[in-house]
Amino acid sequence: MDGLVHIYTGNGKGKTTAAVGLGIRAAGSGMKVLMIQFCKGGSTCEELVIAQLKPAFELLKDKKISKFTWQMTEEEHKQMRENTLNLFNLAISSANNKDMIILDEIMAAISAGFIDEKLVFDFVKNKPSHLELVMTGRNAPEKLVELADYVSEINAVKHPMTKGIDARKGIEF
Ligand code: ATP
Ligand code: MG
């Protein structure tokens, strides 16, 4: 089966959770899945479940990230660029050994200037033909949208944050 390219974008909730759901479906079919999370540190509850699915479904991220982009000093920004490149290189080096790679929040990493859009574009364009590639994040660049086979834009029709309801454990993280 030839692998295709997916993008989940838009400003509504559901991009990462859709990618996790797709990863679980793929792992259930016997595919080897690697999810790499960019830009976000800390822990989310889905990690606890994904950890039980090793080695069918593996998750890599930089847990040390604790600041938003706009709070970073120039030095921290530089460090983020280095760390992002290291994570991205793991995707490149795993591409032949995995059946699905999920680059979660890669669009945010591009928007923040942590990684060159060209590098991502080249990876997508030259990916091994068997590889199913999934990317998420707001503001997907047009060039990546053109390359993709599935592009789903999730719009925020309503979100409870506007009513003052904070992020809830198990739902938002
Ligand atoms: P999820 O991880 O729940 O699938 P997401 O990946 O679509 O969400 P992100 O852009 O990664 O959303 O944002 C991360 C967090 O911001 C999520 O917890 C999500 O609930 C929240 N969020 C998403 N869309 C909105 C919105 N329109 N307004 C406020 N918060 C939002
Ligand atoms: Mg997300």
UniProtKB/TrEMBL annotation:
Keyword flag Transferase: yes
A GO biological process held by the record: cobalamin biosynthetic process
Signal peptide: none
GO molecular function, one term: ATP binding
TM region(s), chain numbering: none
Alphabetic keyword roster: Transferase
One Pfam family cited in the UniProt record for this chain: CobA_CobO_BtuR
UniProt-listed PANTHER family: CORRINOID ADENOSYLTRANSFERASE (PTHR46638:SF1)
Name listed for the protein in its UniProt record: Cob(I)alamin adenosyltransferase
Organism: Ruminiclostridium sufflavum DSM 19573
